[in-house]
Amino acid sequence: MNEPRQMRITSSFAVALTLVLAPAVPATAQESAPPMLTPPGEGPGDDGAPNVLPPPGDENSPMIVPPPDESPDETPDAFGSAPSAEDEPDAAPVDQAEDAVRPDESREEKIDRLFSELRKQPDGAKAGRIAGRIEREWRRSGSATIDLLMQRAATAMGKKDNAAAMDVLDQTLVLDPAYAEAWNRRATLNFAMDRWGKSLADIEQTLAREPRHWGALMGLAMILERLDEKEKAFDTYMRVLAVYPALKSAQDAAGRLADEITGPVI
């Protein structure tokens, strides 16, 4: 690696640490485009495997094709937490005062406000509570039917009944293809089933609907690491830190990759 690239990566990770400690951080990740993916048989590859294409303007980045014989040891928590009892249609919010939508703001405005708070919060525990509130908003589809299907999918995934979970998630996406969290859940399930290409395609759909979804970004970064695309993984972890600076798993991963890419500092 040439010296300018080393300096850029080292500088980028320094920015990540600054994001964690600074009182305010610009919402850069909202403006960045998610990686472009092509489904099986529709990309430049000739083996039917899904391809990951570089973002627009990045003509030098190589295409990534998931090796069919490699698989991770376990599903990462990176895709975000699954629906829980508090998400059931008749359940009361964990904290009604915190979760209530203000009279003068829409649900989307509430999520934007929470992301603003998340970017400014350096304390990991407090940031985690804000992140939990965002995730609850993501999981509230506005449809009792969709919420029930997501609960059933979560139950099936918990029992390792992948076929049943996939069937329910497929039904959910037929009913509401605009629901980002259903795409994210299916990305998680495909990852657990070692179907990396399908997981990447579902991650793309998640990020197209919610570019700030740090769980989907973390899942993407972990897949890129397993494909030995360390620089792309590092850049993706940096996108996570732009929206969730206090996320320790992203901090640790970015720091580790910065060391691996640039080598030890002498």
From TrEMBL:
InterPro entries: TPR-like_helical_dom_sf, TPR_rpt. Keywords: Signal. Residues 28-108 are annotated as: Disordered. Residues 99-108 have a biased composition (Basic and acidic residues). The keyword Signal applies. Coiled coil: none annotated. It comes from the Bacteria. Residues 1-29 form the signal peptide. This is Tetratricopeptide repeat-containing protein. It comes from Jiella avicenniae. The lineage of its organism: Bacteria, Pseudomonadati, Pseudomonadota, Alphaproteobacteria, Hyphomicrobiales.
